[in-house]
Write a structure and sequence with these properties.
The structure is a single chain. The protein is mostly helical and about 100 residues long. It has one domain. The chain is built from 4 helices and no strands.
Length: about 100
């Protein structure tokens, strides 16, 4: 008896049930397992969105710092003000008095 004869002896209902089971197992594997699964695809999509938001924020802050740098390079009064206020620098032969106002 050959395999094709044995296959033909199986009732049609059993063949259909087997096909449905195989389909659902394959569908389950596609959704939940592997790097190309639906779950991983959603996780990757969320991560991409998060990284794109971070890139936009970094670009915005880079623009702000570039503007500050350009301002310091072109405006000598602003450069002197920041040097005096933030770094405590002074001109030679100049006395600086620091008062603590609360």
């Amino acid at each position: 008896m050959s395999i094709s004869n044995k296959f033909n002896e199986i009732p049609t209902l059993h063949k259909r049930i087997f096909a449905v089971i195989v389909f659902f197992v394959f569908f389950f594997i596609l959704i939940f397992y592997g790097d190309n699964s639906y779950v991983k695809t959603v996780e990757y999509s969320n991560k991409i969105t998060e990284l794109q938001t971070e890139i936009k924020a970094n670009r915005d802050s880079a623009i702000i710092y570039q503007d500050k740098l350009n301002s310091l390079n072109t405006n000598k009064e602003e450069l002197e003000r920041i040097a005096r206020e933030q770094y405590g620098m002074k001109r030679p032969n100049e006395d600086v008095y620091i008062t603590d106002i609360k």
